Amino acid sequence: MPRPIEALIHQPALAHNIRRARACAPDAQVFAIVKANAYGHGIENSFEALRSADGFALLDLDEAQRLRNLGWRGPILLLEGCFETRDLELCSRLKLWHAVHHEQQIDWLAMHKTHEPHRVFLKLNSGMNRLGFTPSAFRAAWTRLNALPQVDEISLMTHFSDADGPRGIARQLAVFQEATADLPGERSLSNSAAVLRHAADASVRADWVRAGIMSYGGAPDYPEHDIAHWDLKPTMTLRSKVLAVQHLHAGDSVGYGSTFIADRDMRIGTVACGYADGYPRHAGHGTPALVGGQRTTTVGRVSMDMLAVDLTGLPQEGVGSEVTLWGQGPHGGVLPIDEVARAAGTIGYELMCAVTRRVPVHVETLG
Ligand SMILES: *Cc1c(COP(=O)(O)O)cnc(C)c1O
User: Where is the active site (predicted)?
Assistant: First the structure.
């Protein structure tokens, strides 16, 4: 028998979350962001549930190829565009839309031989200072692209650095609007946080929204809001089982480094899940978990293959009990990945991308 750990991908929840993106931006088209192998869910595992989106956006050309192999003929946008001149051949062959965020990408296009001109998304650096043309260089880049026979449609894109927080988007939105004021073309500005928090403004929804983390049941602004607040459902469950039970007395310790010392009698369950499965070692004592669908917490340090949970208040649970590390538990219980991430000093995005290859993945398909 394999180790009892597994990851479940919930297609009904993915489909629900995409509907939520649509409901927040009903007049916009929705890109489902599937970079990083669909945020660790697997493009192939997620595709049927996400194909109700209007397009997919990602970074890796091989992931674009995989989407075409699945039969997707609709839009695919490369969010970082091409990395070298050769990539344009694949863009032509697979009919990929691609971001243009620096001058060299325009040089490559100008030399590219193609029968069918490309659609590009010209990226403005409106303040994030990661990718994109500065406001002062933007118009010249647009003019250059517009003169190329290799390009037939130029869309306009930017990315918000603070859509999830108190700084908000007003400043970057104003920069975008000024830089693009009289330029034609479709526009795309919003990630999940902007879709959830700022999309009452039609200029924020614009023509295309880019739904990443919300599609995967993460709240971009946790802990200010959780997924229940945003009506999102967990799309990935990491679950395992209790392998062993230990009875502790006051003064006994648990795990490497004896970082946890019991101050009373306790019952501890040893769970087949560790950092080699992608569970964060930084998740300290007290990180939430579900056992048999009931809430408890981890105890002591996470080791490579195991961690411990407190069963003291759960006398009916023991060897073989189901442990939900995050996601959907039995009896309708939910443990949002954001809660576990926070206990580990990170964000849900990182945990869902980090489940390792040794964890078998199963898919709950659309009903
Ligand atoms: C990853 C990414 C997104 C999606 O962000 P979420 O916060 O996951 O919604 C949108 N746009 C760009 C350019 C991205 O790189």
Answer: 35, 256
Contact in structure between 293 and 324 (CB atoms under 8 Å)? yes
Q: Residues near 311 by Cβ (< 8 Å), separated by ≥ 6? A: 242, 245, 267, 268, 269, 291, 296, 317, 318, 321
pLDDT at 342: 98
Q: Are strands 151-157 and 187-188 parallel, antiparallel or unpaired?
A: parallel
Q: Where are the alpha helices (DSSP H) in the chain?
A: 11-24, 35-39, 43-50, 61-69, 87-94, 103-111, 135-146, 170-180, 192-198, 202-205, 337-343, 348-353
CATH superfamily of 236-364: Lyase, Ornithine Decarboxylase; Chain A, domain 1 (2.40.37.10)
The residue from 35, 123, 233, 241 that is catalytic is 35
**Opening angle at CA 198, ends 37 and 174, nearest 5:** 105
With b for 16 or more beta-carbon neighbours within 10 A and e for fewer, the 190-208 pattern comes to bbbbbbbbbbeeeebbbeb
Of ligand 1's listed atoms, the one at least distance from the Cα of 131 is: 13
**Alpha carbon of 30 to ligand 1 centroid (Å):** 12
The answer on whether 22 is annotated among ligand-binding residues is: no
State phi, psi for 298 to the nearest 5 degrees. Answer: -75, 160
What are the backbone angles phi and psi of residue 231, rounded to the nearest 5°?
A: 55, 50
CATH topology (fold) of 11-216:
TIM Barrel (3.20.20)
